[in-house]
Amino acid sequence: MKNYLSLKATEDEQGSQSYTANTYSVRCMWVSAVVVSVCWLLNKLHIFIVDQSIMNLAFIGSMGFVVLAYTVKHTLGFERRCSSYIILFLLVAMLTFVNMELSYHVTLFMLFPMVCCVLYNERCFTIYTLALSILGILGSVIAGFYIGLCDANMLLLTWSTTEKHRTEILSGTLNTNSDLGKLILFFVVPRLLALIGITILLRYIMREIQEKTAKAVENRHYADMDGLTDIFNRHKFENMIETHYKKQNSIAVLYIDVNDLKKLNDRLGHEYGDILIKGMASILKDFQTDHCHAYRVGGDEFVLVLENPQAGDRVALVSAIQTEITNRKLENGVVLSAAIGSAEGDSIRIDEIIKEADERMYANKQKMKAEWKQVP
Prior knowledge:
By secondary structure, the protein is an alpha+beta fold. The chain has helices at 2-44, 52-75, 81-102, 112-117, 123-147, 162-171, 180-224, 234-243, 261-268, 270-286, 313-327, 350-374; strands at residues 232-233, 250-258, 292-296, 301-307, 338-346. A five-stranded mixed β-sheet has the order 1-3-4-2-5. Strand 3 and strand 4 (301-307) form a beta hairpin. Helix 1 packs parallel to helix 3 (81-102) and helix 5 runs antiparallel to helix 7 (180-224). It is elongated, with a radius of gyration of 33 Å.
């Protein structure tokens, strides 16, 4: 069961990451489509002087790719791995098509897919997107030269000074012949170098971000966890009261106090007392779920909080923990005993509920001490 839950949690996490990455990729498509729309509008206003048929094709095509992306979302969903491959393909295909038509207006668009693929955080997606982008650059330059507004149509005016070109034009010696080799050498290769460079840079940046994030998570973990028992500490408990528990509908609190810890420490040493503490924490860990968490709030005091309990859940939980305490065998023959008090109610009253559970725990402890005294 634990292996199944762990696998299920991993699948959910991967699905969530895919959904987020795909969402941002589609937003990138939207941004690109908006830029094309602005260019189309400026051309309509005669601020740009591009052939309107080229602008129309770029505008309609970009919107068409966005529609395809939303079709994938509503048919396959963004959580699936195959959707990620499709969305990245559509993103590269869209930007390749737009570059084919408008070229120097949107040249930097071809870097967008590599920026987006960082969010997928997998080497296979980086390689896949880079391969598509290389093909996209090659295709957009060559096809754009013949059917679009391509900067490669100014090929021979890019290798020397304006004065030299003016002299050649006036003398009639300017050679305007172009071929595939020149397109690849002067336009495809520089863009590929820029693409590869930004890809390497993004990988380094992403790795640095991941390391810093992991360090921050680790530091937060140590700040929130009790070092001896590896369950949440009092600091985390107080923070959860203010930021989380008061927002729930109802709450159940179990206050647990381990019996005779001081006596055991004084008689046998703190290492034996630690056995008691870790034994109690181990039991409470077994009862933790997404909506039920344990905290060590003092030397021998623990709190278990159950969110939105159903009728009878609190009583059943107390009974199950008491049974586990009775049956739990600890190392070195140490015997575990604990007093438990519980209370529940509206989450807005959580401070009162905690106090009530604490008072009931103390009453339970006094009752247990009285019963021990009666034992011959």
